[in-house]
Design a protein that fits this description.
mainly alpha; 69 residues
Length: 69
């Protein structure tokens, strides 16, 4: 019972809910995932940046991007 109480106590901490919002890349992950779903392919070149458009884009977490979208 003590282990379950500690586990639930850690899950209820307010810092856990702030972690998702404080991640600056979360909206980018969603946008990349949306692009991959719309185009049915893995993103290979940067299509979102105006300074590096067409530059090689390494998407090592493409599965997570699609799930996040």
């Amino acid at each position: 019972m003590l282990g379950i109480a500690l586990f639930l106590g850690l899950l209820a901490q307010p810092w856990r809910s702030m972690m998702v919002v404080s991640d600056a890349d979360s909206l980018m992950w969603q946008r990349v995932g949306d692009w991959m779903i719309d185009h049915q392919q893995i993103l290979r070149a940067d299509v979102f940046s105006h300074t590096r458009e067409g530059a090689r884009y390494i998407t090592k977490e493409w599965g997570a991007n699609v799930i996040y979208a």
